[in-house]
Prior knowledge:
Layout: H1 6-10, E1 13-17, E2 20-23, E3 35-38, H2 41-54, H3 66-73, E4 79-90, E5 97-104, E6 111-112, E7 124-133, H4 134-137, H5 141-151, H6 166-175, H7 177-182, H8 188-192, H9 210-216, E8 229-238, H10 241-246, E9 254-261, H11 264-285, E10 297-298, H12 302-337, E11 348-353, E12 355-364, E13 367-376, E14 379-380, E15 399-402, E16 410-414, H13 417-422, E17 426-427, H14 437-443, H15 446-455, E18 459-462, H16 479-489, E19 493-505
Parallel strand pairs: 3-4, 18-19
Antiparallel strand pairs: 1-2, 2-3, 4-5, 5-13, 6-10, 7-9, 7-11, 8-9, 8-19, 12-13, 14-17, 15-16, 16-19
Helix pairs in contact: 5-12, 6-12, 9-11, 11-12
Amino acid sequence: MVVRKYEDELQYLEQVTPYCWKIKKGFQPNMKVEGVFYVNKNLKKLIFEELQNSCEPGKAGGFLPGVKQVANVAALPGIVGKSVGLPDIHSGYGFAIGNMGAFDMDDPKAVVSPGGVGFDINCGVRLLRTNLRIDDILPVKEQLTQSLFEHIPVGVGTKGTIPMNRKDLDEVLETGMDWSLRKGHIWAEDKDHCEENGRMMNADPSKVSSRAKQRGLPQLGTLGAGNHYAEIQVVDEIYDQSSASKMGIEEKGQICIMIHSGSRGFGHQVATDALSQMEKAMKRDKIEVNDRQLACAYINSEEGQNYLKAMSAAANFAWVNRSSMTSLCREVFSKQFNMQADDLDMHVIYDVSHNIAKVEEHMVDGKPKTLLVHRKGSTRAFPPNHPSIPVDYQEIGQPVLIGGTMGTCSYVLTGTETSMTETFGSTCHGAGRALSRAKSRNALDYKDVLQKLEDLGISIRVATPKLVMEEAPESYKNVTDVVNTCHEAGISKKTVKLKPIAVIKG
């Protein structure tokens, strides 16, 4: 690892626009391309404090700062364009969280890295709309929150309510939301408003270990813990009425439901298994990386293809997981208001992934290229008229769902042409941590956090109250700063702001 003084590090960073900084080659060893990161004035302070602390012994806490991780990704074999850090960037395993990198599928030396996807494969966000208004919810808010908490399994070690055997699980892993449709857990149009229509076609359950299947079998239809949540939200602001209307969001005060979850222990085990195999592949093929957490394999190697097939199976698991919780939400609302879910207009607006690797077509140096795009803590943001987004959204661009922190706002954005040219069709995914989980536990008191939420009029149910310190707003960057940075940089466009009125968490 290169060790330099903070002042020496700064010579490799150059501000190129009010919202974008370049990371020059040489910042980390063997960089094949340059890096960039997006920040506004407030977020810049956090980035540079983290970098400065990494240059002072005893302050770094054992983690590489996000900006150095972006540079290390720029040194991976086969990367093209630039390694991109989004405004919610913070330290992660291998890749920073909030980091994307694209790799040339035609380059035999190009790699795939599980660290560029993360352990919670296809962690993502789903948004449902309703035709309810805030005045409909407030009289029954506590009953509704409690009912959601009782119906949706939350917390570490919880088991799903869907009967599942090994044969069923293999079908889930292979067919994704097509399985949910066959079982009657979703509406047919749910698939139309989901990335990849809720199914990665190259998924292969035979590439998944027995241990991963064992971990996943009881967890389908569960929210999990950590930063995962289901929220009842109210439309607080509409910035683009035309785009909002295309999504079925018509006015302030309208009620939506946001579900944030992923592939649970199943995806974690898939990533763990792949990392072990890739370390062996690196030795065999003499692949060198700046950080051992960037363990990787050539895309077209046996290890690379096995990982992509298993990762796709985990992505399908996550889509079925969110679909199962969608069904539970519809049941709860239907029972509470004594109406059918379709009469409540409980349609899926969209479902986005923010921990995934996908094969996509992009322009590189003026030429079309087939790329493997790693997005870790990064959301796809395709523009209007892109063939990969639903017919309903061709005029406005892909909806992008940005979940906020517990007790703060969330956003709906839309994709732009600028994102295609600057970030391979990518934008931010959330607020991004400002404090580690350990620091959050030491600095905050869970009773104070819960009281603040109550003071804000937010009903909350949590399986483990002490864990709320880790997810308190103070632990995260300001999501509005993150979203505004992406909006001003042109890589996504603000459409709707949502604020929570009820939260369930693990």
